[in-house]
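If your schedule permits, I should be very grateful for your opinion on a structural question. I have a record of one protein: its chain in single-letter code and its fold written as discrete structure tokens. Kindly check, if you would, that the fold set down in the tokens agrees with what the sequence suggests. I remain grateful for any guidance, and I place the record below:

***
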Amino acid sequence: MTLPVLDNLVKIGQLKAEPRNAAEISRMLSMAHTRLNDARLNKLSAEGRFISAYNAAHAAALAALRWHGYRSESRYTVFQSLAHTLNWPATRWRVLDNAHQKRNLAEYEGFLEIEESAIAELCALVADLIDDASSLVGEQ
């Protein structure tokens, strides 16, 4: 199911149109569940839990994008597309954008300062994201 707003992003090279692949989407959602479960393991470092929650969010958001027939190389675009793929308001997907910025600081500059409350908030949001993406594709 194509979406006009996302079709415009294809035209400018921000997204690629690609046929839906149910097996790939199922694997992404499975990975999202696994990463979220990892993020909830208190024996892991705060950094490890944050990165796991972030990776779970990316996998679930990408599954929703793939369900609609698109792919992106940009993690930011995958999160921003949630406004169209799952009708998420900006207040929700911008939390993921904030996590993306923190993840980039960790990956590219070796700096990650994260509070437990932020990890808990991210995990709760990611659980909602996985549920919404699973509902979209009919997997629960």
Remarks:
- The first helix runs from residue 4 to 11.
- The CA atoms of residues 61 and 99 lie 13 Å apart.
